[in-house]
């Protein structure tokens, strides 16, 4: 006997979002504890696999895991391979690349006096660079073959130099270049919090103006300041919405995409109240 009058109600509700987002691009950033914890990383990969199964086109950008200083060392290389292996195990045909491949990301070296000013400096591939241009043809080619690109935050310049880039900035820049429907940041918190010390003070939806107010009031932790700048770049560049969701909860990404209530914080350029978490 069914446990409810309509046991397929949730499926019907999700189908509406599947139709809405079919063939749309979602850029998802994985870094920090989500990337470095086996259980959390695999849960994220399983959610990405479901998006791909529903013909949503994810592009993954990864930073570093906790306590990793240089992605050129053995620990970092293993972490990158683990991410690719976990995606493959979840059924995702992924391809690992960096911003150096096929000139995907071009950058200029940041002045020496500013090298330590970026919160993403922990993803230290070498000197920090500021992205100047994107050539998304390689990503489009891979997506045309139904592959999922997994991008490491490296960028090059015409002289052959290689720079580390902010993973937040890379994710936002790639999202703009691909005219992405959504950009996701998976966080150690449920989303943007009105009180950083209180997980229950979640802000379900915010505009760029409200985000700037939170920053001015000092309500954003260090890493979130970098993400706030990336969010602004993405939305001004035409990305539909940016979502900050928990990487600690195994289904938070799916809940944010496939339910009207969502699970984290959706940031939009201008107010769109009443459209739901996925509007």
Automatic annotation (TrEMBL):
<keyword id="KW-0547">Nucleotide-binding</keyword>
<dbReference type="Pfam" id="PF00696">
    <property type="entry name" value="AA_kinase"/>
</dbReference>
<comment type="pathway">
    <text>Amino-acid biosynthesis; L-arginine biosynthesis; N(2)-acetyl-L-ornithine from L-glutamate: step 2/4.</text>
</comment>
<dbReference type="InterPro" id="IPR001048">
    <property type="entry name" value="Asp/Glu/Uridylate_kinase"/>
</dbReference>
<keyword id="KW-0067">ATP-binding</keyword>
<keyword id="KW-0418">Kinase</keyword>
<keyword id="KW-0028">Amino-acid biosynthesis</keyword>
<keyword id="KW-0808">Transferase</keyword>
<feature type="domain" description="Aspartate/glutamate/uridylate kinase">
    <location>
        <begin position="24"/>
        <end position="245"/>
    </location>
</feature>
<dbReference type="InterPro" id="IPR004662">
    <property type="entry name" value="AcgluKinase_fam"/>
</dbReference>
<dbReference type="InterPro" id="IPR036393">
    <property type="entry name" value="AceGlu_kinase-like_sf"/>
</dbReference>
<protein>
    <recommendedName>
        <fullName>Acetylglutamate kinase</fullName>
        <ecNumber>2.7.2.8</ecNumber>
    </recommendedName>
</protein>
<keyword id="KW-0055">Arginine biosynthesis</keyword>
<dbReference type="GO" id="GO:0016301">
    <property type="term" value="F:kinase activity"/>
</dbReference>
């Amino acid at each position: 006997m069914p446990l409810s009058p309509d046991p397929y109600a949730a499926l019907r509700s999700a189908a509406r979002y599947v139709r809405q987002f079919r063939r749309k691009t979602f850029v998802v950033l994985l870094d920090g504890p989500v990337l470095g914890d086996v259980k959390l990383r695999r849960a994220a990969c399983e959610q990405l696999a479901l998006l791909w199964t529903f013909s949503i086109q994810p592009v993954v950008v990864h930073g570093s895991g906790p306590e990793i200083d240089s992605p050129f060392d053995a620990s970092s290389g293993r972490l990158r391979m683990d991410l690719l292996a976990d995606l493959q195990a979840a059924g995702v045909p992924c391809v690992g690349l960096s911003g150096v491949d096929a000139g995907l990301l071009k950058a200029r070296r940041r002045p020496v006096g500013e090298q330590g000013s970026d919160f993403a400096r922990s993803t230290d591939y070498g000197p920090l660079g500021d992205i100047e241009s994107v050539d998304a043809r390689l990503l489009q080619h891979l997506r045309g073959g139904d592959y999922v690109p997994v991008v490491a935050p490296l960028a090059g310049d015409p002289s052959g130099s290689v720079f580390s880039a902010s993973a937040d900035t890379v994710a936002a820049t790639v999202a703009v270049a691909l005219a992405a429907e959504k950009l996701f940041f998976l966080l150690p918190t449920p989303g943007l919090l009105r009180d950083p010390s209180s997980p229950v003070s979640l802000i379900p939806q915010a505009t760029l103006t409200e985000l700037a107010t939170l920053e001015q009031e000092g309500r954003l932790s260090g890493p979130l300041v970098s993400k706030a700048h990336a969010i602004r770049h993405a939305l001004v560049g035409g990305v539909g919405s940016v979502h900050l969701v928990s990487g600690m909860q195994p289904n938070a990404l799916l809940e944010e995409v496939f339910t009207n209530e969502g699970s984290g914080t959706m940031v939009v350029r201008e107010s769109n109240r009443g459209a739901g978490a996925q509007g």
